[in-house]
Specification:
The complex is a heterodimer of chains A (289) and B (344).
Chain A: E1 21-32, E2 35-42, H1 45-50, E3 58-63, E4 67-72, E5 83-88, H2 92-98, E6 105-112, H3 118-121, E7 125-131, H4 135-147, E8 155-161, H5 170-176, E9 183-188, E10 199-200, E11 217-222, H6 225-237, E12 245-248, E13 264-265, E14 268-269, H7 270-273, E15 276-278, H8 279-284
Parallel strand pairs in A: 7-8, 7-11, 8-9, 9-10, 11-12
Antiparallel strand pairs in A: 1-2, 1-6, 2-5, 3-4, 3-6, 12-15, 13-14
Chain B: E1 2-7, H1 11-18, E2 23-30, E3 33-38, H2 57-60, E4 64-71, E5 75-77, E6 87-92, H3 94-106, H4 114-122, E7 123-128, E8 152-156, E9 160-165, H5 168-176, E10 182-183, H6 186-201, H7 212-218, H8 224-231, H9 237-241, E11 248-254, E12 261-267, H10 288-307, H11 317-321, H12 328-343
Helix pairs in contact in B: 7-10, 7-12, 8-10
Classes of the chains: A alpha/beta (289), B alpha+beta (344).
Chain lengths: 289, 344
């Protein structure tokens, strides 16, 4: 057999969608015992300038020696140059991430996914309903809306936590309560400390304190399954059309680019056609919620 | 398409010429079965074979493939891989070429996969026609004839192989043999049509695919899935041998004593219990029945929604490989039966 001599060059990184770009951890904020916000900045300045995401998109985060996992972007594209990832320690990857310190280097590729349909939401009211860690993906949309306030009609934020101590981005949330261009409604399930002066009750109870205009409103919902169940109930009871309810869904992902098959639900890939789905999509795709 | 013919007694000579286009791999016999393998000599090739254990997929999406190498200070870099290595796959059946055309859809799109694409460009395909056996249903899946995705395709017409020239590279192979190939006569075409028609009639299995999306839509809650879940071992053999199963896992392996490592992808299966498991323990397809249902839905229903046709090509490998005799043709027939039973 004759052997062909290989003359072609190896794959060029620019053409390789699996190629992570190295980024430095510039800040780590402890939110809760098991939840931290990692602020990243690409080492390559041209990446710092060229990386642009939409609210609701995610990145594939690589930790050298450990692996890669999808993490939603918590910062808004209106605040460029850095990426904030709000992460709960839940598995091997996130445990490894929690062992890293400021100035350590990780790999990032993306942004991936569809993100929230901000062009459709434009001109409408925006209702954000987050429970617990559900704030992580919704925060990018929150700040996108607040930084482009003129593009939206009313903005309502509903955020429920187990206790005041469990509230993510607490100072930021409390500061929003003082703004008159957003109706910031915070609630806690219980207040063991007794120091909380705000509302006490589950997230869905906030619907008792607000008048909504469903035909001119998009609702973005994210949280644990129980949040979906009861918030969706409230939204439907209020008269929301199922395609005006937007949800951010979590699935196992290995590639983030529609190849590896893991995030497939029904006929869609969460990484390509999601992670933001309308409630209509969700009920029409088997195994979606 | 350019169509020529090659005298059968010149095939050996043609094979020797083809070596200059890459390392030749072809089906060879191994323990009574067939595997695609690098030839040490042409006489090892078995062109009259039923099906290889693994499909040609293994060349384009290897069972384990390094994607990136991590080196501290350098970051992730593509390994000096073998994706540019030139091969000639000799003797690929139509269903397997069709399967590659389906994988082409998956590994193209918004994010073309450079590893797969490079291999597809550097691995030449010489197809050959075949005789269906009791497990073949490629005719039903419309994969018994391919009009693209190969470089040359040989069809037995008696003393000659009718040869479809499917690419410029295929044409170069023809030209490299100088005068080996001959022009076809109307009688050759007639003979091809006669044999093609006879092959069409030789299939023992038949699946109606026109209304599969409708049937799957109606049978999502069928008890058939529970029965299959109880039967299935979740071993993933069907995925490994399937020419269009492409799910993969990605894993990092560290080099002991250093921070360097390799990120590889490995074949995975939606039948494995971890396929839809997310951090924190939530598993969206915890039961076996939900996993085997997912596999069938993705092939016969989901792929139709995405790409307009099922991803199954009817090669029969999953029927051969399943240790508990789950037979896709029987399952599809049973789903159709329940539907009829319900409507009459």
């Amino acid at each position: 057999m004759l052997l062909h001599t290989d003359t072609a060059p190896p794959l060029q990184p620019a053409a390789n969608p699996y190629q992570p770009y190295m980024a430095r951890i510039v800040r780590i904020q402890k939110m809760l015992d098991d939840t931290r916000v990692f602020t990243l900045r690409f080492l390559d300045e041209s990446m710092v300038r060229s990386f642009r995401h939409r609210p609701g998109q995610f990145v594939m985060l690589s930790i050298p020696g450990t692996g890669e996992a999808p993490i939603s972007i918590s910062s808004s594209p209106t605040r460029p140059e850095i990426l904030e990832l709000c992460v709960r320690r839940a598995g091997r990857m996130t445990s490894s991430l929690f062992r890293l310190s400021t100035n350590d280097v990780v790999g990032v590729r993306g942004p991936y996914g569809n993100g929230f349909p901000v062009d459709d939401i434009r001109g409408n009211h925006l209702l954000l309903a987050a429970g617990g860690l559900g704030m992580a993906p919704l925060r990018s949309l929150l700040w996108y809306a607040l930084d482009n306030r003129h593009l939206f009609d009313g903005v309502i934020l509903m955020y429920g936590s187990r206790s005041p101590a469990d509230m993510l981005f607490r100072d930021e949330m409390l500061s929003l309560a003082g703004r008159d261009d957003v109706n910031c409604m915070l609630t806690v399930d219980a207040d063991p400390s007794g120091a909380w002066t705000g509302r006490i009750g589950h997230l869905p109870s906030l619907f008792d304190h607000v008048t909504l205009e469903p035909a001119r409103t998009y609702a973005a919902v994210c949280g644990p399954p129980v949040v979906y169940r009861y918030v969706l109930e409230r939204l439907l009871a209020a008269g929301f059309s199922k395609d005006r309810i937007l949800m951010s869904l979590e699935r196992r992902m290995k590639c983030g680019i529609g190849k590896c098959g893991h995030c497939s639900v029904g006929y869609k890939y969460t990484c390509l056609q999601g992670p933001i789905f309308t409630y209509w999509d969700a009920i029409n795709l088997p195994e979606m919620i | 398409m350019k169509i020529l013919k090659l005298p059968k007694d010149k095939l050996d000579y043609f094979a020797s010429v083809v070596q200059q286009f890459g390392e030749v791999h072809a089906p060879v016999e191994q323990d009574g079965k067939y595997v695609f393998k690098r030839l040490t000599r042409w006489s090892e090739a078995r062109l009259a074979y039923d099906r290889t254990i693994l499909p040609p997929k293994k060349y384009f999406l290897p069972p384990k493939e390094p994607l990136l190498v991590y080196r501290p200070g350098e970051g992730y870099v593509a390994p000096a891989g073998d994706v540019q290595h030139r091969l000639v796959l000799f003797g690929v059946h139509a269903c397997d070429v069709y399967a590659l055309n389906i994988l082409d859809l998956v590994f193209a799109g918004k994010y073309p996969d450079p590893y797969y694409q490079a291999r597809r460009k550097n691995i030449a395909i010489i197809g050959i026609d075949c005789v269906p056996d009791g497990k073949c249903f490629c005719r039903s899946m419309r994969a018994d004839f391919v009009d693209h995705g190969f470089d040359l395709f040989f069809c037995d017409i008696g003393g000659h192989y009718l040869t479809f020239v499917g690419s410029a590279l295929g044409d170069d192979m023809v030209l490299a043999t100088e005068t080996l190939f001959e022009t076809v006569s109307p009688a050759d075409i007639d003979e091809y049509k006669r044999r093609s028609g006879a092959k069409h009639e030789a299939f023992q299995l038949d699946v109606e695919i026109r209304d599969l999306p409708e049937i799957f839509e109606m049978e999502y809650g069928s008890a058939i899935w529970d029965d299959l879940g109880a039967q299935c071992l979740s071993c993933g053999s069907c995925s490994a041998v399937c020419p269009t199963c492409y799910c993969f896992d990605m894993n990092d392996e560290a080099v002991l004593g250093s921070r360097a490592g390799t990120r590889s992808r490995n074949w995975d299966s939606c039948l494995f219990s971890t396929h839809a498991l997310v951090a924190g323990g939530e598993n969206f397809r915890e039961s076996r029945s939900s996993r085997i249902k997912f596999r069938f839905y993705h092939k016969q229903r989901g792929f139709v929604a995405e790409y307009g046709r099922p991803s199954c090509v009817g090669c029969g490998r999953c029927i051969t490989a399943c240790p508990v005799d789950i037979d896709i043709v029987e399952v599809l027939a049973a789903l159709r039966e329940t539907r009829h039973a319900a409507t009459h």
